[in-house]
Predict the structure.
Amino acid sequence: MSIEQRLAELGITLPPPRAPVFGYVPVAVEGGLAWVSGQLPWAGDGLLAKGRLGAEVDVETGRAVARCCLLNGLAVLKEALGSLDRVQRIVKVVGFVSSAPGFYDQPAVVDGASHLLTELFGEAGRHARSAVGVAALPRDVPVEVEFVAAIRG
């Protein structure tokens, strides 16, 4: 089954890819790897959520935000590669979680992205990962996700 078919089976539509506002590219392809820049939780014309985990944002909302970030990353990856079927496997995911003092559940938040990758790519979606608590993220978002994919051809 193609990744496009799997997305449809799960009822998921990728958002339109967003062009970067600053001086970087959304995806850099080099040496059989696609490096996807950090993605924010854009949903339509706005952000899915704002604030810090453990203060204004709860873990379940954080998981949904991480999933949204990942979908935005898949959208720019598809645009760069032409098809997500070129993804051989997901190698690494890094999730940055804007955390209030005393919040220590960053891994549970980033699981929102990790579980979706496994749903989509099966065993090839299992990846190495870091879940990093930070004091602040751009635009006051709760989560930012970046990832690296090994690609075919």
